[in-house]
Write a structure and sequence with these properties.
Strand content of chain A: under 5%
Shape of chain B: globular
Strand order of the largest sheet of chain B: 1-2
Structural class of chain A: mainly alpha
Radius of gyration of chain A: 22 Å
Distance between the termini of chain B: 43 Å
Distance between the termini of chain A: 21 Å
Number of helices of chain B: 21
Helix content of chain A: over 70%
Radius of gyration of chain B: 22 Å
Number of helices of chain A: 23
Oligomer: heterodimer
Order of helices and strands of chain A: HHEEHHHHHHHHHHHHHHHHHHHHH
Number of strands of chain B: 2
Largest interface: A-B, 33 and 33 residues
Mean pLDDT of chain A: 88
Low-confidence stretches of chain B: none
Low-confidence stretches of chain A: 503-511
Structural class of chain B: mainly alpha
Strand order of the largest sheet of chain A: 1-2
Largest sheet of chain B: 2 strands, antiparallel
Number of strands of chain A: 2
């Protein structure tokens, strides 16, 4: 199946359309089955993926609008492969763990459409196609937050939509300008990213274009000071919305940096290292402090997820294989861990209809299973060695140490601060006396909830102990990317900064 | 010693007049039918109109590119053909909206349909000539018919709308006449191609520039009225509100296509002559129009008024493409309208089916946002379709208007106006807010329980039209390529 990527993109969409016909009572089973099939399809993609090839695989190219240079162009490399896997996995598990929901059929259909757009973003190799899926992903999310969210849901959903929409329109102008330059140089219109990679741009162009793409991606990540939409979005979104938002949608921003900004504008990226590192460190420390001050359990996790996105950003701009691979790996671990944490908070919210930390305490006594899983996820989030979270965070810090030891030390506080605010949650919610009468009759996790969380626990421990199967293909593609950037950079500073791993196995033609 | 004037019939090339004559003859046939029998139903007139327009469409398709006829007054070049096709196509799509399930006053008169056809003929004259007098005749024929059509919608604010439109239109006509007079005084000709030749020769004469500015500014004011550009846009929302929804939708597309064609001919000439000042003024007007209309649209309480302001803002987008004066820019104008037409048709048709005879939701407005609250529960398909139209208008890919927007922005970038593309981007983001507002009402709020259902006017033909608009909006990605290449070919063939 050479066209497995198209199947991966359109299967959920077709299933979503057909889902309108499925009866309300069976909608949930339908959704889970479809998501499971999609997940197995993505597993198949992994197995048929050639890990030794660092370039794009399963490429499909059909011209759509040749006069404008727009084509239907899909492909996957080691970087996007695992993000796709995580997307399908989190959609499946999110759906499976979903509690009682009103209008469940609409929710399932919306989620399936959302899955299409998310997979689409990560497989698109045409800038306009990428933009198409990117924008389209806002609509289902708007509906999920707006229809199933908390009291301020409409404000939150509109804020989410408008922020991202504004940023991406600036990015669109950037894309159009790149296409224009490409046309000037070659006489051909093309929006294919791989064609764009061949462009060697003067430094001032690179800086402007980097800025245009930065606006689009930074709002999505979200980077300080564009992060203000996320507390509302997370605070108001239903559990499934937060899970998808944290696990996948935020990754679109960081993925955009890898796919567009780094290879296309290597010199500008090197120049941006310091400003971006400063912003990332502000994100890490400032949002960690905010997380500590939260009274609401979900907001703690929301802010901690922003804080962890700071680590990912830092790794992206380390300009060496450790940093970049660690960063991609951290995207995966953050997706799974914060997704799981949001699910856990959602489960307790369903039981008590509150997320305030002050309402809880001593839950370990009544909900041992819940407490254990929460504890594992929390440790992974903090970055305890031998958990999923540790590998990425460590690699990122290791990578960035070569850039600036001072900043790395500042960023390293993330582990300490993370431990501080997370253990505070642990202390307030799970330990101490069981004082609140209402908490005494809480039921522990039921079978559905347990079984949707166990795979995540298994992944967290498996990839914490033995990350190689995932890390190796990522590393391979990352090294090819770095070699490519090094070759393309025009300023000597950039050439010095970008460290190409000498042991690179990517001798095959990259990109 | 007057020489007898011999004109051979062949040199007249009467075929260039055929499309307009077909429309006029069709209008007359409808009037004659009414004379013969008074009991005929509106459905017959609607179908007659569609059929006449169909023949008209065929006649336009059969024309050869770059021909002149009728004492060289008629000019059949690429843009005249594509604009006529769009005018006729748009009219064919909008006229079946008369087939509502409820009876509306104006459609019981066959004169309505006759006037409609005369109006189409007027628009066709406007675009198929470069003679200033014939343009004027076309504008007036079309506008006078349109004023009457608006007033036929038997309501107090329809009269207000018609009178307002008439007054403003008369003012615009006066400006146009004065501008043409100055052009004639400068060049001794009213044929634009001759005007361009003479002006090119006289451009460097001292003291003449101010007159050329004068002529351009008078003409610009006239067309700013017609295209509803800031600050000449104030009539538009009131007129749209007063007119029935199909006519309002029609007005936001078809008359503007005609006015744009004339603007391309006129202002393109000025810009080609190197009068940069005209370009700057148009750019300023464009930016002001798209921004201010957007901001006004944000605060509207009525969906129709919101759509009116939004269509002004879209016009601002397109005027910016006009100022670029490149082949791509001109292609963008037509592509944008071709794509915008379907979405706008759909959106106004959705308003039309929810139109009540009395205002049940609000004393002041026909279509307040509250009317659409919780539409997803009352009428799920309708809500989804309307949501698609709103997303398309907001420029969310892959729906139709997005492709128009991206083409306009690409044209702006290619012509070196990156700042313009950025302003367009930011404006699209502002616009997203008010389109989203309707989506929020439809999908996320609960219906107002104590008033009855909103799909009041629905009928099979209306559903068919909305279905067509939906398909065209959603599948745009597949037909943009042939459309762009056809438009580009026709426009470059006529030298714009």
């Amino acid at each position: 199946m050479d066209n497995i990527l198209s199947i991966l993109v359109f299967f959920p969409a077709i299933a979503g359309l057909l889902g309108f016909v499925v009866d309300k009572e069976s909608a949930r089973a339908y959704g889970i089955t479809v998501a499971a099939i999609e997940f197995f399809l993505s597993l198949w993609l992994w197995f048929s993926f050639d890990a030794s090839n660092a370039g794009m695989q399963f490429v499909e190219l059909i011209p759509l609008i040749p006069d404008m240079g727009i084509s239907y162009y899909l492909g996957v490399d080691g970087i996007s492969l695992f993000i796709i896997l995580m997307t399908t996995l989190m959609t499946l598990i999110g759906m499976a763990s979903m509690g009682e929901t009103k209008n469940i059929k609409n929710m399932i259909v919306t989620l399936l459409f959302l899955e299409m757009t998310m997979v689409g973003v990560f497989v698109a190799l045409d800038a306009i196609l990428f933009y198409l899926f990117w924008e389209l992903s806002l609509v289902p999310m708007l509906y999920i937050i707006g229809a199933w969210g908390g009291p301020l849901r409409i404000y939150a959903s509109i804020k989410f939509f408008l922020y991202t929409f504004t940023g991406s329109l600036i990015m669109l102008v950037g894309m159009l300008f790149v296409a224009y330059i490409y046309h000037n140089l070659t006489g051909v219109w093309s929006f294919a990213i791989t064609d764009w990679y061949a462009l060697v741009l003067p430094v001032d162009y690179q800086l402007w274009l980097f800025a245009a793409f930065f606006v689009g991606f930074a709002i999505k990540v979200p980077m300080f000071p564009f992060h203000t939409w996320i507390p509302y979005a997370h605070g108001q979104a239903p559990t499934i919305g937060s899970v998808i938002l944290a696990a996948v949608l935020l990754k679109m921003g960081t993925y955009g940096f890898i796919r567009f900004s780094l290879p296309m504008f290597p010199d500008a990226s090197v120049m941006a290292i310091t400003p971006i590192a400063v912003i990332s460190i502000i994100m890490i420390i400032y949002t960690a402090m905010i997380a500590y001050a939260q009274k609401d359990m979900k907001q703690v996790i929301a802010y901690s997820s922003v804080s962890h996105m700071g680590i990912i950003m830092l790794g992206l701009f380390a300009m060496n294989a450790e940093g970049l691979s660690g960063s991609v790996f951290q995207m995966l671990s953050h997706g799974i861990v914060s997704g799981a944490l949001f699910m856990l908070v959602g489960m307790i919210y369903e039981r008590r209809h509150t997320k305030l930390l002050s309402e809880f305490g001593g839950l370990t006594a009544v909900m041992p299973k819940f407490a254990i899983i929460f504890g594992i996820m929390l440790m992974a989030s903090v970055g305890l060695p031998l958990t999923f979270g540790f590998v990425g965070e460590f690699l990122v810090l290791l990578g960035f140490y070569q850039v600036s030891p001072m900043m790395t030390i500042l960023a390293g506080t993330s582990i300490i601060l993370g431990a501080v605010y997370m253990l505070r949650v642990m202390k307030l919610a799970f330990f101490g006396p069981l004082n609140n009468e209402e908490n005494k009759k809480l039921k522990d996790l039921n079978a559905r909830e347990t079984w949707s969380l166990i795979p995540l626990v298994a992944i967290v421990i498996w990839l914490g102990v033995y990350p190689k199967p995932v890390l190796a293909p990522i590393d391979n593609s990352v090294k090819a990317l770095l070699a490519f950037m090094d070759e393309k950079a025009i300023t000597s500073e950039a050439k010095d900064m970008i460290r190409v791993a000498k042991t690179s196995t990517s001798t095959k033609e990259a990109k | 010693m007057l020489e007898p004037i011999n004109v051979s019939l062949e040199s007249l090339n009467l075929i260039t007049l055929a499309p307009m004559l077909i429309a006029i003859a069709g209008g007359l046939i409808i009037l004659i039918l009414d004379l013969i029998s008074e009991k005929l139903d509106k459905s017959l007139y609607v179908m007659m109109t569609v059929l006449v327009l169909f023949i008209d469409f065929g006649a336009v398709l059969g024309l050869n590119v770059n021909e002149r006829g009728f004492f060289d007054v008629m000019l059949i070049d690429g843009i005249s053909i594509i604009s006529q096709l769009m005018i006729i196509g748009g009219s064919m799509l909008f006229i079946p909206l008369a087939l509502t399930s409820k009876r509306f006053h104006e459609y019981s008169y066959p004169e309505f349909f006759a006037l409609f056809l005369f109006m189409v003929a007027g628009f066709q004259f406007m675009v198929a000539t470069d003679n200033l007098i014939l343009i004027f005749v076309g504008i007036e024929t079309a506008s006078l018919a349109l004023y009457t059509l608006i007033a036929l919608h038997n309501r107090a604010n329809s009269y207000e709308a018609a009178v307002k439109y008439f007054t403003m239109g008369a003012l615009a006509a006066a400006f146009f006449a004065m501008g043409s007079a100055v052009v004639y005084a400068l060049t001794g000709s009213i044929e634009l191609y001759k005007v361009a030749e003479v002006l090119a020769l006289r451009l460097n004469e001292t003291g003449l520039m101010i007159t050329i500015f004068g002529s351009s500014i008078l003409l610009l004011v006239a067309f700013a009225f017609k295209l509803s550009l800031f600050p000449f846009h104030t009539w538009a929302p009131d007129v749209y509100e007063g007119a029935s929804a199909p006519l309002a939708g029609y007005m936001s597309v078809v008359p503007k296509i005609a006015a744009f064609v004339v603007s391309i001919r006129l202002f393109g000439m000025y810009i080609d002559l190197g009068v940069e000042w005209v370009r700057i003024v148009i750019l300023v007007l464009a930016v002001l129009t798209m921004t201010l209309a957007n901001i006004m649209a944000l605060v509207q309480n009525d969906v129709k008024r919101m759509l009116a302001y939004s269509s002004i803002s879209h016009a601002g987008f397109i005027v910016a493409a006009l100022a670029l004066d490149t082949t791509e820019g001109n292609t963008a104008i037509f592509l944008y309208y071709a794509l915008f037409m379907f979405t706008n048709l759909g959106a106004f048709a959705m308003l039309w089916i929810s139109r009540h005879k009395k205002r049940r939701f609000d004393a002041r407005y026909d279509h307040p946002y509250e009317k659409f609250a919780g539409l997803i529960q009352i009428m799920p398909m309708g809500a989804v379709v309307m949501g698609l139209f709103m997303l398309s208008l907001a420029g969310v890919p892959p729906f139709s208007v997005f492709w128009g927007k991206i083409y306009v922005m690409q044209a702006a970038v290619n012509a070196g106006y990156i700042w313009l593309a950025i302003i367009m981007g930011l404006n699209s983001a502002i616009a997203a807010y008010y389109y989203l507002k309707l989506i929020v009402y439809m999908f996320l709020k609960d219906p107002v329980k104590d008033v009855d259902t909103v799909y009041y006017n629905i009928s099979k033909p209306l559903m068919a039209i909305i279905g067509l608009a939906t398909v065209a909006t959603v599948t745009a990605i597949f037909y943009v390529q042939p459309l762009v290449s056809y438009l580009y070919y026709m426009i470059s063939a006529s030298g714009y």
